[in-house]
Amino acid sequence: MNILRAEELSLGYRNKKVVEQFSTSIQQGSLIGMVGPNGSGKTTLLRALSGLIKPFGGQVFVGEQNLFLLTPRKRAQLIGWVPQRERLAWPLTVREVISLGRAPHRGWLLPMTKTDQAVIDDVIHNSDLDSLEDRRMDELSGGEFQRVLIARALTQEPRVLLLDEPTTNLDIHYQIQVMDLIRQLVSCGGITVLMVIHDLNIAARYCDGLILLHRGKQICAGSPVDVLTPENLEAVFNVKTNLYRDPWGFWAVSARNGTGQYGREEPK
Ligand SMILES: Nc1ncnc2c1ncn2[C@@H]1O[C@H](COP(=O)(O)OP(=O)(O)OP(=O)(O)O)[C@@H](O)[C@H]1O
């Protein structure tokens, strides 16, 4: 079943068009990555798919429901959105911020139910945030902050999760941990994830499918192996690459240096 469908979306800011005639259908329970150069329109697309910006033209459907006809609360029950950055207005603690994810499921100012508390406890634990839950958000490192924003979206229990570069600020341990958690939610929880990702190795390793964007247009879409070809990547990024299986058996992309000369020496 297709859970998220965009039909001929045209997007932009004021009178500047940024994305043209974008269409896609995303199957429930899949993890799809959106890749492409800086400024190609990836974040703009995610913002439109979360209902944050209105398109110049086209439609978005979540299941059978027209996204732009839903109330903000109903939209938040269906779609979770984790931005690249966020400025918090108040000095809240980690637990308080994660608890905000339950808001779409509660009446205005109603107390948390046992279910709310259980979801929050589970997410804090699974996101390895137990030791940080009483810390203030303005005291966190960039990576810790990002993990809290992801956790807040998970407590929302959305059907579709939109993530904008979820691993950018994370060290290699938390890159793997966050991506394993997302993969598990997709595989076991039936949640659908669309994420913008610059790291092509993470894209190749974790995603069921990829969408390649360039200058606001979809260049191709398909399995990571079909999308991350040397031809596609050279056309879009102007870099020579190689798609290969790494020693662990995962698909990986390596780019050649400009001169192809340095970085090959044995360590002294
Ligand atoms: N609020 C805004 N007002 C006007 N133009 C904007 C706004 N936000 C983004 N743009 C422009 O829209 C284009 C696409 O930006 P977008 O952030 O969607 O690209 P992106 O593919 O996510 O880039 P990156 O990989 O660098 O994050 C860029 O030219 C950008 O300058």
Automatic annotation (TrEMBL):
GO molecular function: ATP binding; ATP hydrolysis activity
CDD domains membership: ABC_Iron-Siderophores_B12_Hemin
InterPro entries for this protein: AAA+_ATPase (IPR003593), ABC_transporter-like_ATP-bd (IPR003439), ABC_transporter-like_CS (IPR017871), P-loop_NTPase (IPR027417)
Domain called ABC transporter: residue spans: 4-240
Gene3D superfamilies: P-loop containing nucleotide triphosphate hydrolases
Keywords: ATP-binding, Nucleotide-binding, Translocase, Transport
Coiled coil: none
Name of the molecule in the record: Iron complex transport system ATP-binding protein
Taxonomic source organism: Pelolinea submarina
